Amino acid sequence: MNQSTETTTNSPATSPASTNKPAGRIAFIQARWHAEIVDACRVSFLETLRRDRPGAFAVDVYDVPGAFEIPLLARRLARAGTYRAVVAAAFVVDGGIYRHDFVAQSVISGLMQAQMEADLPVLSAVLTPHRFHESAEHQAFFLDHFRLKGREVAAACLAVTAEPVPVAVAA
């Protein structure tokens, strides 16, 4: 497992008073199979955080070999008490042996279990296409799709880490 930190730029509006540190940390776990496609998700995720909540979060990026290794690390990071949320990204494709459905289901179940055990948001950008071929057309399509998923998982992450706002219900 490799780790790097990509800290968003702080701004006075989102930084705690008298410090120049982000208000929280997010862990981003990425599988390295089809890294160029998964990286598009991470880049889009980080750009969206910087645009929508500049300086709000530092993001620690963790590399794992494949999607199957994500849930254990997600659970460990969620339990550590360091993070406000954990985000997972992977691209699970059909390698011709019909194993991808098993892997994808196991990963999603593991992420849900980690979330429930740690009582911490664990978000998924783990995707399994119906069909994927190593053609330029499919590469381009899924690069764009993972950029979209990066923006979507960033928006979800910002929503679940925001302070809850009570909703008044008329009696």
What tags apply to this protein structure?
Rossmann fold; alpha/beta; 4 helices; 5 strands; five-stranded mixed beta sheet; about 20% strand; about 170 residues
Number of domains: 1
Class computed from helices, strands and strand pairing: alpha/beta
Count of distinct strands: 5
**CATH fold naming:** Rossmann fold
CATH architecture level-2 label = 3-Layer(aba) Sandwich
Query: What sequence of helices (H) and strands (E) makes up the elements?
Result: EEHEHEHEH
The helix fraction, in percent, is 40-55%
- Proportion of residues in extended strands: 15-25%
Average predicted confidence as pLDDT: 84
Return residue spans where pLDDT drops below 50 for at least 5 consecutive residues.
Answer: 7-19
Short description:
This protein has helices at 35-52, 70-80, 100-118, 136-161, and strands at residues 2-7, 24-31, 57-64, 85-91, 122-127. With 171 residues, it is of the alpha/beta class.
